[in-house]
Design a protein that fits this description.
The chain is mainly beta and 270 residues long. It is 11% helix and 35% strand. The protein contains 4 helices and 16 strands. The strands form 4 sheets. Strands 4-3-2-1-16-15-14-6-5 form a 9-stranded antiparallel beta sheet, with no helix packed on it. A hairpin with a 2-residue loop joins β15 and β16. The longest helix is centred in the N-terminal third of the chain and has 12 residues. The relative contact order is 0.17.
Amino acid sequence: MTKRRPTFMVLLAGLGAAVGCSDGSEVNIGNTQSLGGKLSDYAATWDGYAEAYTFPPSSSDHIHLVIAADGTGSMQVGSDPLLPAATDPDVGYPPNAPADPNAVIGGVMSGLAGGVLYPLHASQVQTNRIQIGLKPHDYYAGWCALQTSYQVFNGWTGPDMVPNYVYSCLPGGGGGESLDTNPPQCNVQIDAPDGSYTQQPVDCGKYALCLGRVCDCNETSCSSSPAMPADATPPQYPTELDAALDSSGTSMTGTLNLDGMRITVHLQRQ
């Protein structure tokens, strides 16, 4: 008489793999990606602060961050209300900015400042950390978009002395300012290849911003500087936010690499 082998042990083993642990909880063996491994894990509105650092002009440490599932979004720092949109390309921005070019260049142009929404650039996730590129000069993005791009003579290059031209939001590459007058007076110097030049009056606020190269101009238009290649990664941007979620996904801690400093930031999901 032929004996048959029992098969119930094999069936039970297969059932055990399907139902999971002995406590009855299910295990999804097809999902091995932990929290924080994809951009959508960070999609939320976040509020928090910068540790031992404040943002001008309000001297507030507040950070407000909005991230969409695809990594786009915005960051707002400080406690200042949003500035009105730029409307006049012939004067500086914001309208009450200092007329002294040195004061402007040493102020908000060197870091993030309150009053604007900074777009998030090239967001990506690396080893369960979100990395986001930021450009401080996006403070002037709307103003730069209003500018006319000028082709400016910039000297000679090579042994054959070929005229070199660059693009700028000023019609010239030099000039000067008289800040002791009321109102201050500024002039841009327009050089020609034959050595001649002319002087053209210009608003001191605009003169300061263009001289400080907050705008990056090409043959047709101007935008906030620097112009970044399409494949640029967050560490290549002037400012980078690098942060990780906690185990619950409700808070995020990281660093803001800002103007040569690494500032610790703490953010809470709203």
